[in-house]
Amino acid sequence: MTVTHSGQRRTPKAAKTSSVFKKVVMAVSGIILVLYLIAHMVGNLKLFAGAETFNGYSEWIRRIGEPAVPGQTVLWIIRVVLLAAVVAHIWAAISLWRQAKRARPQQYVARKQVAQSYASRTMRWGGVILGLFVVYHLLDLTFGVANPAGHDATPYDRAIAGFSNPIVVGVYVVALLALGFHLRHGVWSATQTLGQSNKTRERTVNAFATVFAVVLTAGFLIPPLSVLVGIIE
Amino acid sequence: MNLKLRVWRQRSAAEKGKMVTYQVTDVSPDMSFLEMLDVLNEQLILDGEDPVSFDHDCREGICGSCGVMINGRAHGNGLFDDHPQTTTCQLHMRSFKDGDTIDIEPWRATAFPVIKDLAVDRSALDRIIQSGGYISAPTGTAPEAHSILVAKKDSDAAFDAATCIGCGACVAACPNASSMLFTSSKVVHLGLMPQGQPERNDRVVNMIHQQDLEGFGGCTNIGECSASCPKGISMENISRLNHDLLGALRAGARPKS
């Protein structure tokens, strides 16, 4: 039995920064981001319900919790939690990336991988692409500064204006495919990291990860592609 | 059969190494991979050259001493569909074709410095064992088998983990040079047994702490380790280790430094 003395309760630096602890930070922050993505994807599909519904939904997000709390309180809580999750996710990733680089400075002359998937091989650079995309995406549709319709347009008009441009849609398609691959390995890896996988569950977890990644990516791809081909106007 | 070998030659950890090409002739398909290297070395000695250093001991696939990268795969595992996962000494030349070119390199990891040529220093794995791979229960005379009951599934899983021979193939194959499969198999094979419970929490935090100190990378659950392991140790052990570590940290176990 391990006896905990009061002085031991704070995690010392070594345990806090163990590679497995960093992976746990990665997994937990990833789960927070994935939960947000599910809500985000469902919200996007409201583009099909027309301008009024979509703009109303956008307005509602700002009013969640009213009148119990002042307007935008819940929105800001969500934003702060997401920002914290993104920072933690990136910190853990960079730290583990550097540890892996240090662990093998001399590369193999001949190298053959048999177990790794495209998804697992591209986690790190795919993550960098996603990080850059999120910055662009916020400038485009949240702040409106990178949007053809500008900041003063309604959310619906901004979405239509942006997604009518094939280049913009191209950027979104590339980033969303990167997201799909990131989720495919991320869901499986988080399950392992949190100690919830085993031999019998392994197949189910991997199958779920694939289905989840495909559904989420497809859900995100449908609105921009629909605007581009004119299903949504 | 005649083969072209490209072998990593490095005189010491301090010197730079490079791939050197050798021709070996009249190799019998019945030879093991290490016997083929013996043939090369006899030839090198007769020519007055320095023979290639490589680790080996039992040559029966059970000691974990041998192990080289063969055409980019640890022990050559994963190169041949009809060949079970095993150690370098149990790979036979019949798996290759006459005229093949074979690349032979040492395990590459900061934690495994090259001693000479293909021989690397794997004592980092011993230090991980020292940090927690033990039990304090008195051993000696075997107790009456029914005195401590162990569930069949636990004893099976513990035995599967205990088949790890500590060869280091998992580290060599891992894109992050992580020893997670090795460490997890040691944590799990003791952690599933009643005798392993007193140190269970301390074991996992200390062994992970030591693994990081040795300069291994972190696990990203890619699975190259398991696909290269001569004993086919499953990735489920890594999940079990993670589960134990979270429980141990919650219970207040901290690495002794």
UniProtKB/TrEMBL annotation, chain A:
The chain crosses the membrane at residues 20-39, 76-97, 118-139, 159-183, 204-232. Gene3D superfamilies: Fumarate reductase/succinate dehydrogenase, transmembrane subunit. It holds the Pfam family Sdh_cyt. Keywords: Heme, Iron, Membrane, Metal-binding, Transmembrane, Transmembrane helix. GO terms for cellular component: membrane. It is found in: Membrane. One of its GO terms (molecular function) is metal ion binding. NCBIfam families: sdhC_b558_fam. This is Succinate dehydrogenase subunit C. It comes from Geodermatophilus tzadiensis.
From TrEMBL, chain B:
It comes from the Bacteria. Keywords: Iron, Iron-sulfur, Metal-binding. The keyword Iron applies. GO terms for molecular function: 2 iron, 2 sulfur cluster binding; electron transfer activity; metal ion binding. Its cofactor is [3Fe-4S] cluster; [2Fe-2S] cluster. Residues 18-108 form the 2Fe-2S ferredoxin-type domain. Pfam families: Fer2_3, Fer4_8. Residues 155-185 form the 4Fe-4S ferredoxin-type domain. GO terms for biological process: aerobic respiration; respiratory electron transport chain. NCBIfam families: PRK07570.1. Belongs to the succinate dehydrogenase/fumarate reductase iron-sulfur protein family. PANTHER family: SUCCINATE DEHYDROGENASE, SUCCINATE DEHYDROGENASE IRON-SULFUR PROTEIN. This is Succinate dehydrogenase subunit B.
